[in-house]
Amino acid sequence: MPPEFHLFANGPRPVAPFSHAVETDGWVILTGQMPTDPNAPDAPLPDGVTAQTARVMENLALILAELDMDLSHVVQCRCFLTEFDRDYAAFNECYQSYFPADRRPARTTVGVTALAVGALVEIDCIARRT
Question: What residues does each domain of the chain span?
Fold first, then answer.
C-alpha cells in the first residue's frame, strides 16, 4: 500500500512545503508543529515556552484528530528548543501533562539555534494505529 500524504484545511497553515502527516502501514508521521494558531495563523506567537508548548501539543492533537486518532496513539516525539537550558524544565512540566505517566512516548529533546517563525519550541511525532 503506498503512503498517504495528508494536508488538512483545518490544520495549522504550513510554514514550509510539507504535508501535515504521512501514513503508511498503520504508521503516521506528523510534521513538526509550530506554536501558531490555526484560526489566526498571522497572530503573534504565544508568550513563553509553556504557552508555546501547549499550542504545539494542541496542534499535534488537531492533526491526529483529523486522522481519527489522538495523543494516546503517539509512540515517539522529537522536541526542539531554542533556549534549552532556560526552558527545559518548564517545557517538561507542560509536555508531560498531555500524557499519562504510564504511557509516555519515547522522546528525544534537542537544543537548536533557531526555529521557523521565531518559535521557542517545535515537536514532531510518530503515531501508530491500533
Answer: 4-128
In which region does residue 63 sit, left (phi positive, over 0), alpha (psi from -120 to 50) or beta (all else)? Answer: alpha
Q: Residue 54: CA atoms inside 13 Å, Cβ hemisphere, count?
A: 10
Beta strands in 1-130 (DSSP E): 4-6, 21-24, 27-33, 74-81, 106-111, 121-128
Residue 55 in contact with residue 96, Cβ under 8 Å?
Answer: no
DSSP 8-state assignment for residue 40: B
CA distance 2 to 46: 38
Residue 92 cell numbers, joined:
517538561
Alpha-carbon span 99 to 97, nearest angstrom: 6
- Residue 80 has what pLDDT? 98
pTM: 0.95
Please give the grid coordinates belonging to residue 61. 492533537
- Asked whether residue 15 carries a pLDDT value surpassing 90, the answer given is no
Which numeric CATH code is attached to 4-128?
Answer: 3.30.1330.40
Which residues of 7-120 form beta strands (DSSP E)? 21-24, 27-33, 74-81, 106-111
